[in-house]
Amino acid sequence: MSIKDLPADARPREKLLTRGPQALSDVELLAILLRTGMAGKNVFQLAQELLDMGGIAGLLQASPASLKTVKGLGPAKKAELLAVFEIARRALSQRLQERQAFHTPDAVKQYLQLQLAHKNHEVFAVLFMDSQNRLLAWEELFRGTLSQTSVYPREVVMRALHHQAAAVVLSHNHPSGSVQPSRADEALTQSLKASLALVDVRVLDHIIVGQGQALSMAEQGLM
Prior knowledge:
Elements (H helix, E strand, L loop, with lengths): L11 H8 L6 H9 L8 H9 L3 H6 L3 H4 L7 H24 L6 H12 L6 E7 L5 E9 L9 H10 L4 E7 L9 H15 L4 E9 L2 E4 L7
Parallel strand pairs: 3-4
Antiparallel strand pairs: 1-2, 1-3, 4-5
InterPro entries: MPN, RadC_JAB, RuvA_2-like, UPF0758, UPF0758_CS, UPF0758_N
Keywords: Hydrolase, Metal-binding, Metalloprotease, Protease, Zinc
Protein name: MPN domain-containing protein
């Protein structure tokens, strides 16, 4: 069934305008963005295929490459979806800039998932915070297999001083999907804590990101 075959009050756009966005299912919200399907695949089927990538959270972490695998997404639809994903990232970034990030730790995890979960290579990144734990900057600093030898504490310290940061949140992704910290992750965290303490910068957390999940080493008592 296509949208035009539905009763007027059951069509996603009309339903949103009369009852509010909270009344719509994930499929209906996505159908509004997509607008049309394709031959043999209506817009609801196309929306469901996208949601099968891991629900709304998984979709927000999708990359341009992963969207290429979905038949029926032309350049215009892909561009619109990617624009929405970037708006979500920037909205979370603004929240972290405007208020104390660790009053809402889940927002930090969500932000890092949007930034890192879709990457197919390992990335080490840092959130630089002011004295009120508000976001000053986000930077990807290293790529590749992470270890104490590939992540240089001196560079992390230099970037913290550049931003005049009072605290940092360390983060990296596990493309394998598991978010359990390795011995190397724990050793790296302690090495960076020691280096940053020399310039009075606190390490608040080290968050490990995988597809659809994130683990806080602070919450696990590993800091």
